[in-house]
Amino acid sequence: MFCSGRRPTAPGGGMQTISWNEFELVELRTGTVLDVQEFPQARTPAYIITVDFGDEIGVKKTSARVTHLYSRESLVGRQVLGVVNFPPRQIGPVRSEFLLTGFVQGDGSVVLAVPERPVANGLKLA
């Protein structure tokens, strides 16, 4: 999650645009945090987060640098948005299976992107 902080740019430095068809390929799904563990091997403070994305997607894990604003206890039971169709990525001893989404602030802290009210796990952002 939030690996480089760099954003893709178009030639000339402007914001890169994508087509509607490209956007529809991104599987942004809702899920509920089941478990949060410390990730002491991480270079930057991070958690190992396990999320239930419903029957179709299942349970997936990721590493996320959200320790500035969230305690482990405050994350369990919270609904989040994750990109679930990226290929898995090995981050040290953790196999990251989805990208937890959030907004990186100027100080590096991350505010999670979440549904504004409870919804079923596995719903796709439209």
From TrEMBL:
- Would the keyword RNA-binding turn up in this protein's UniProt record? yes
Boundaries of every TRNA-binding domain copy: 22-126
UniProt-listed InterPro entries: CsaA (IPR008231), NA-bd_OB-fold (IPR012340), tRNA-bd_dom (IPR002547)
What would you give as a GO molecular function for this chain, any one?
tRNA binding
Query: Organism's domain of life?
Result: Bacteria
Q: Give UniProt keywords alphabetically.
A: RNA-binding, tRNA-binding
Gene3D superfamilies (alphabetical)? Nucleic acid-binding proteins
**Entry's Pfam families?**
tRNA_bind (PF01588)
Name assigned to this protein: Putative export-related chaperone CsaA
